[in-house]
Q: What sequence folds into this?
């Protein structure tokens, strides 16, 4: 696999993981007991830390990309392993 492909896969994993991690660890003003600013949405976070999110997403994406590339190289799990709907058996058998 080319290094540019690995970089593109890493970037895709990074974006997906960053969006999945956005709601974790974020608390609202009501949960913190802090008074809201007039016009502030009730769901607005008071302790959003983008740096922490970037670090976590970077580390987790590196791990997921490594597992993905190793699976690609060694073929641990292939499309044959994921056959969830096998062919159903014939109802009537052979007609003679």
A:
């Amino acid at each position: 696999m080319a290094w540019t492909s690995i970089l593109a896969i890493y970037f895709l994993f990074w974006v997906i993981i960053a969006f999945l991690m956005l709601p974790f660890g974020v608390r609202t003003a009501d949960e913190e007991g802090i008074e809201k600013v007039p016009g502030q949405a009730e769901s607005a976070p008071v302790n959003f830390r983008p740096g922490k999110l970037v670090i976590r997403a970077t580390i987790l994406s590196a791990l997921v990309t490594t597992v993905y590339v190793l699976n690609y190289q060694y073929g641990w799990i292939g499309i044959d392993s994921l056959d969830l709907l096998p062919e159903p058996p014939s109802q009537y058998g052979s007609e003679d």
